[in-house]
Design brief:
This protein is an alpha/beta fold. The chain contains eight helices and 16 strands. Strands 3-2-1-4-5-7-8 form a seven-stranded mixed beta sheet, sandwiched between helices. Strand 12 and strand 13 form a beta hairpin.
Length: 306
C-alpha cells in the first residue's frame, strides 16, 4: 500500500486528504496548523478530519525542526503532499519521501506563484484561475507540473465563490493524478517561469481603496476582499468605510480626480475616477451597515471622496 505524509490546512487540505484516503493511500501522518483565534475560521478543519480517521497528527509552529523531521522519517512515506499548508517545507523534509514531494497550488502555474493566489487573480481581473499539482523543491511553486485544471471566474464572483471552484478543481486534479504517480508513469512538464510572477501575502491594511482607480479595478478589488476577508476600505471624515459588494452600473458619468460615494436616485453609488459607476450593494461605516438613509444622516454634504 502507498504511504504518504500530508502537510495540510484549509478546505483544500480536507478535500485533498479525503481524495488520498478515497484512493486507498495510507496516510501515516498529518501535519497541520492550530487555528489562530484572531482569524475568521470559515473553512474546514484538517485536524478534525485526521482525528476522525485516526491519523496521527502534529501541529508544530515550525515544521522544519529535528522533531518533525524525525516523525516524518519514522513514517517511511512513499510520498509527501502539501495541500494549502502555510509554511515553507525545507529541503530536509522534501528529501524524506522515497517517491517525491508534491504541492497543490491554487492557480494555473506559473501564474500567481506565492501567497493568496485566488485573491490576487481577482484583483487583476482574471477570467479564469485553477489548481495545479506540482513537484515541490526548495523554491516556492516552481517545480514541474503534474496536472492542472482551470475554472472560470465570473465578473461578479467574489473570492469565496472562486475558492469553492478551486477546491473542486484541486480534488479532481489529485484524484486523477494519483494512479499515474503511484505507478510511476506520471508525465511532468517544467514551468516557464517567464509566463507568470510571484505574489506575496496580503495584510488587512492592503485593502485600502485607490480612489484614482477605474470602476472595473475598484469592483475587482472589492470582490477580491469581500467577506470572509477583511474588506476593501477607505478612511473618511466620518470613520472607516468598508465596501463589501458592488456591481458595475450601465452608462458612465464624468471623469474626476478621485472616486466619490453618493446617492443617485436614492441608491448608494460610487463614481470612479474614470467616470464609471458602481452600485454599492453592501457597505459599512464604522462597523455598522450603511444604507441610503444612514448615508444621508452621516454625509449631509451628499457625497464623500474616497
Amino acid at each position: 500500500m502507498t504511504r504518504a505524509v500530508v502537510f495540510a490546512y484549509h478546505t483544500v487540505g480536507v478535500r485533498c486528504l479525503k481524495a488520498l484516503l478515497g484512493r486507498g493511500v495510507e496516510v501515516a501522518l498529518v501535519i497541520t496548523h492550530r487555528d489562530n483565534p484572531n482569524e475568521t475560521i470559515w473553512f474546514d478543519s484538517v485536524e478534525r478530519v485526521a482525528r476522525e480517521y485516526d491519523i496521527p497528527t502534529l501541529t508544530p509552529d515550525d515544521p522544519n525542526t529535528p522533531e518533525v523531521l524525525a516523525a516524518v522519517r519514522a513514517a517511511q512515506p512513499d510520498f509527501l503532499f502539501s495541500f494549502y499548508y502555510r509554511h515553507m517545507i525545507k529541503q530536509p523534509l522534501l528529501d524524506v519521501p522515497a517517491r517525491g514531494a508534491f504541492n497543490m497550488h491554487g492557480s494555473l502555474l506559473p501564474q500567481y506563484r506565492g501567497r493568496v493566489p485566488i485573491n490576487w487573480a481577482i484583483i487583476h481581473g482574471e477570467s479564469e484561475t485553477g489548481a495545479t499539482l506540482h513537484v515541490m523543491n526548495a523554491k516556492p511553486d516552481n517545480g514541474a507540473i503534474v496536472d492542472q485544471m482551470a475554472v472560470p471566474v465570473f465578473p461578479d464572483d467574489n473570492a469565496q465563490d472562486v475558492f469553492a471552484k478551486v477546491v473542486t478543481a484541486a480534488e479532481m486534479v489529485l484524484w486523477r493524478s494519483l494512479p499515474a504517480l503511484e505507478s510511476g508513469t506520471a508525465s511532468m512538464r517544467e514551468q516557464d517561469l517567464s509566463l507568470g510572477g510571484y505574489f506575496g501575502g496580503r495584510k488587512p491594511e492592503d485593502g485600502r481603496l485607490d480612489g484614482t482607480a477605474s470602476a472595473r479595478r475598484l469592483h475587482d478589488f472589492v470582490r477580491a476582499l469581500a467577506q470572509p476577508y477583511p474588506g476593501a476600505f477607505a478612511d473618511v471624515d466620518a470613520g472607516r468605510l468598508v465596501l463589501w459588494r458592488t456591481r458595475i452600473a450601465p452608462g458612465r458619468g464624468v471623469a474626476r480626480d478621485r472616486a466619490r460615494l453618493l446617492l443617485q436616485a436614492g441608491r448608494l453609488c460610487l463614481e470612479a475616477a474614470d467616470g464609471g459607476v458602481l452600485y454599492v450593494l453592501a457597505a459599512e461605516l464604522n462597523g455598522v451597515p450603511l444604507d441610503a438613509a444612514r448615508f444621508q444622516k452621516c454625509f449631509i454634504s451628499g457625497s464623500v471622496t474616497i
